[in-house]
């Protein structure tokens, strides 16, 4: 019986490995149809400044709805796109679409776009960003690029040159998920990010755990000293906002303010906060 069970476990194990590989290949094949099949769309999550309570930007987040698989979360398909070499096309689509959609917003509201480390390493990054700005007509200062710390782990000279080239276009650069990567504080001196986004894993525990609060506070103080703005990600309750305010955090983003919304709802969101003009009244007949 023990032997049978052992064999059973073994075959169960290999089956699940196989199942995973099959699923991965299926996902990859399906993903190839995402752009041509118009299955991708963007949703936008507001970022709010704490000093004046106004919307500074919306972060563009990609969504993929497959006809049979349904909604596949980005944390599942972005890694597949990266491994299968599809992230460049998807990333370009996101960049163009985000710039285009943001054109309809009030002038002072920026759009933040996530870039995969592989996109940052690609030779034509600067040209891609310049092209997205030119074809959409979005002023460069209304675009913010979000990169993660892993970008800074590769060849740092090349990476820094690429980030400087982007900055020369006039776009802002934010460091996403700060504190979760293999951070070296040295690169914060070498590259002046416009904003540090403090990862949700610290923000989530800011009210209940003194250690998380200490890390957030130290991060904000350091960023302020280096003249970088700060944003706390994943803010879910009002008490967290109070703590962040006490520690002079610049902005907040999270479900407390709003989940990511469709662009159709962005202007209504701003109007409800009196941050966009009411639509012109319909013509009298
Ligand atoms: P991220 O850039 O750190 O984006 C924040 C994620 O946290 C989003 O998940 C957002 O919906 C979620 N979030 C926001 N507020 C809260 C909150 O209060 N509580 C909780 N629990 N979650 C919150 P999403 O949209 O599923 O995206 C996950 C990750 O996928 C992103 O993390 C980003 O790394 C990646 N991603 C999304 N869109 C793109 C894209 O267009 N390009 C690339 N390269 N990566 C993307
Ligand atoms: Mg992000
Ligand atoms: Mg983030
Ligand atoms: Mg995060």
UniProtKB/TrEMBL annotation:
It comes from the Bacteria. Residues 24-274 form the EAL domain. This is EAL domain-containing protein. The lineage of its organism: Bacteria, Pseudomonadati, Pseudomonadota, Betaproteobacteria, Burkholderiales. The chain holds residues 509 to 793 of 798 of the full protein.
């Amino acid at each position: 019986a023990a032997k049978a069970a052992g064999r059973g476990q073994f075959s169960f194990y290999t089956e699940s490995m196989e199942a995973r590989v099959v699923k991965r290949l299926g996902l990859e094949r399906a993903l190839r149809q995402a752009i041509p099949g118009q299955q991708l769309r963007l949703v936008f999550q507001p970022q709010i400044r704490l000093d004046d309570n106004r919307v500074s930007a919306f972060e563009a987040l990609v969504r993929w709805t497959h006809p049979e698989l349904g909604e596949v979360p980005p944390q599942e398909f972005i890694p597949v796109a990266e491994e299968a070499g599809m992230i460049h096309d998807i990333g370009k689509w996101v960049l163009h679409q985000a710039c285009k959609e943001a054109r309809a917003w009030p002038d002072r509201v920026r759009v933040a776009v996530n870039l995969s480390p592989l996109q940052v390493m690609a030779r034509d990054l600067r040209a891609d960003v310049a092209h997205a700005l030119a074809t959409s007509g979005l002023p460069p200062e209304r675009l913010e690029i979000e990169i993660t710390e892993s970008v800074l782990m590769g060849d740092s000279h090349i990476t820094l040159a690429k980030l400087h080239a982007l900055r020369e276009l006039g776009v802002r650069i934010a460091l996403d998920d700060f504190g979760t990567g293999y951070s070296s504080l040295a690169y914060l001196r070498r590259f002046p990010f416009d904003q540090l986004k403090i990862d949700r894993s610290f923000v989530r525990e800011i009210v209940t755990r003194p250690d998380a609060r200490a890390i957030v506070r130290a991060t904000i103080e350091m960023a302020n000293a280096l003249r970088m703005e700060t944003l706390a990600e994943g803010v879910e309750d009002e008490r967290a906002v109070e703590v962040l305010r006490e520690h002079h955090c610049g902005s907040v983003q999270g479900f407390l303010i709003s989940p990511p919304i469709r662009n159709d709802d962005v202007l209504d969101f701003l109007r409800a906060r009196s941050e966009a003009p009411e639509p012109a009244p319909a013509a009298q007949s």
